[in-house]
Amino acid sequence: MIDGKGRSIDYLRISLTDRCNLRCVYCMPEDGVCQIEHSRILDFEEILRLVHIMALLDVKHIRLTGGEPMARRGCLDLAARIHAVPGIESISMTSNGILLKDKVHQAKLSGISSLNISLDALDPAVYSRLTRGGDVSQALAALRQALEEGMKVKINTVPVRGFNEGDLARIAQLARDEALCVRFIELMPIGSGSQAGRIPYAEAAALLEEAFGKPEADTGTYGHGPARYVKYPGFKGAVGFISALSHEFCASCNRIRLTADGQLKLCLNHTKGLDLRGMLRQGAEDEEILDAVRRAIAQKPERHAFYEAISDHEERAMNAIGG
């Protein structure tokens, strides 16, 4: 599927729920958010129907997100059904790991081949403060289980000023000892993220270079996202940087998002999209939905424009959009 700017769109991120067992400072307010009514959430049959339609449009890669995807009952059963859809080549999941612990083997059997585990600190006190109550030992247990299962593992870390600066090198060191990827994701000014302290790519990279020496570019393929990877001396794994503000990657964007309430989201920072839930529940035929998605993709914004005066800036919290 080619958008209006000539980009090939083959990657769909599906948010299964806006609910989460944590309250990370850059994602959700401390007292939570007004959750989407259950009746407005896509059911699994609706999600599967849309996956079949997207596969006809050459979407090949699916990522299950949230909120926390494991907070939705039956998540892994859905993954197994998506795995069986003709044309879908890979299914991955982004999770904080806590609810995934002891279910990693089941996740692998369901067809999930790659796990991104959100891990913003290793220090238990820092992790608890940043996630507002999370237990890092549970997240690390899920990480160990994923490695034991031989799954592809990436660690997602958001550097946040005043919280985890002192833990960034320790987290990167996990890629020295294991053949996994650690990715540092530059904080984006969306929802609660607009109030948190962003640590720019250059600052995080300098901190790691001071700890581990000058890295070499790593041109390996570690998934379908926009990370730029490097390898530090003596590391088994790779370290990546996703820096939407410092190093905009919109020109090569290959993704679209399906929110938990059934909105096709074309860009993280734009509200422009398509109400697929409405089409499904109003009885639209598959071909009608196919045509509508094609037209929407043709209008995918050229770039995110975070700091520019545009009329459709996204103002919802990250958990409501789909991480």
Q: How would you describe what is shown here?
A:
This protein is α/β, with parallel strands linked by helices. It is built from eleven helices and twelve strands. It has helices at 44-56, 75-83, 104-109, 124-131, 136-148, 168-172, 174-177, 201-212, 276-281, 286-298, 318-321, and strands at residues 11-15, 61-65, 90-95, 112-118, 152-157, 181-185, 216-218, 228-231, 238-242, 255-258, 263-265, 273-275. It has a twelve-stranded mixed beta sheet.
**Contiguous helical run count:** 11
Structural class: alpha/beta
Round the mean pLDDT to the nearest integer and report it.
92
Query: How would you describe the shape?
Result: globular
Note the main sheet: 12 strands, mixed
Low-confidence stretches: none
Q: Give me the strand/helix succession.
A: EHEHEHEHHEHHEHEEEEEEHHH
CA(first)-CA(last) distance: 22 Å
Beta content: 15-25%
Q: Helicity, in percent?
A: 25-40%
- Give me the count of strands: 12
Q: Write out the strand line-up for the largest beta sheet, numbering strands in chain order.
A: 7-8-9-6-5-4-3-2-1-10-11-12
Keywords, please?
323 residues; alpha/beta; 12-stranded mixed β-sheet; 11 helices; globular
Structural topology:
Elements lengths: L10 E5 L28 H13 L4 E5 L9 H9 L6 E6 L8 H6 L2 E7 L5 H8 L4 H13 L3 E6 L10 H5 L1 H4 L3 E5 L15 H12 L3 E3 L9 E4 L6 E5 L12 E4 L4 E3 L7 E3 H6 L4 H13 L19 H4 L2
Parallel strand pairs: 1-2, 1-10, 2-3, 3-4, 4-5, 5-6, 6-9
Antiparallel strand pairs: 7-8, 8-9, 10-11, 11-12
